[in-house]
Each structure stands twice: as structure tokens, then as C-alpha cells.
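Lab notebook, bench 4. Still working through the backlog of constructs that have no structural model yet. Next entry is a single chain of 91 residues. Request: give me the C-alpha cells for it.
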Amino acid sequence: MSAVQSALFAEEEMGPKPKAYVPNPNAVRNRLRGLLQEMREAEHWPWQGAVLQLYRDIVPPQLYAALPDAEEAARWRAEIGAEAARLDAAV
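Model written out:
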């Protein structure tokens, strides 16, 4: 392997590692607020198929995990969980 090729793999040549992405808690809250509002306004699940699975099973847990306070995440989880149960019963 040439010196040029080996330099491609040397960490010290790559510089500092980029910082990990940290979501803005206010943006996370706004997204949760919008999701909850959409659910509250619906008489039945407003989504179907893969989109329903996305907004029911995938997005909310990721948003809860992005909040800095576990108690706040638990409150959001309870509110969205209650709406999910209501929408499940409406089917």
C-alpha cells in the first residue's frame, strides 16, 4: 500500500470527529404537539398501512428518546398512548 493510500485510513489525518447530532428539544416538542393534535382531531386513525405503523410505532419512541427529561417523555408517552388507545377502540 502506498503512503498516500495509508494516509486515507489514518485517524490523525482525518481531523476531529464531527459532533453527534443532538435534536433541538423545542423542535421535538413541536413535533409531538402536532402529532398529538392530529390524533385528537381524528375520529379514527388518520393514517393507514406503513404510514400508520410509522406514526404509531416508530416516530413517537424516537421523539421521546430525544427529550432531555425522562419525566417529560413519560408525560408525552401517556398522552399519545391514551389517544392511540382511543383510536384503536374506534376501529
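Notes after review: Residues 23-89 form one domain. Helices lie at 3-8, 11-14, 25-41, 49-66, 70-89. Flag for follow-up if needed.
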